[in-house]
């Protein structure tokens, strides 16, 4: 699955940290920085053994979610 938008894009320095737990661009007290980590990364990558990527340039940002076709055994 791919979700795209035509906004200003994600700056390179933020793109490298976008899935880090507790990383946020919001001010103190305005966010926890857990949204993309818990909702996306932990579920897609850790639980379902998929792949999650972001590709972004101004006017073309794409979040790509790839899941395996068959269920992977938990380690």
List keywords for this structure.
single chain; about 80 residues; alpha+beta; 3-stranded antiparallel β-sheet
Descriptive notes:
- The chain has a 3-stranded antiparallel sheet with strand order 1-3-2.
- It has helices at residues 12-15, 35-47; strands at 2-5, 51-57, 60-66.
- The two termini are 25 Å apart.
- The chain is built from 2 helices and 3 strands; from the N terminus they run βααββ.
- Strand 2 (51-57) and strand 3 (60-66) form a beta hairpin.
- It is an alpha+beta fold and 75 residues long.
Helices, strands, pairings?
Layout: E1 2-5, H1 12-15, H2 35-47, E2 51-57, E3 60-66
Antiparallel strand pairs: 1-3, 2-3
The chain-level structural class is alpha+beta
Number of DSSP strands?
Answer: 3
The quaternary state of the protein chains shown equals single chain
Helix content: 10-25%
Residue share in β-strands: 15-25%
Overall, the morphology is: flat
Rg result: 14 Å
- Residue windows where pLDDT falls under 50 for at least 5 positions: none
Terminal CA distance: 25 Å
Summarize the structure.
This protein is an alpha+beta fold and 75 residues long. The protein contains two helices and three strands.
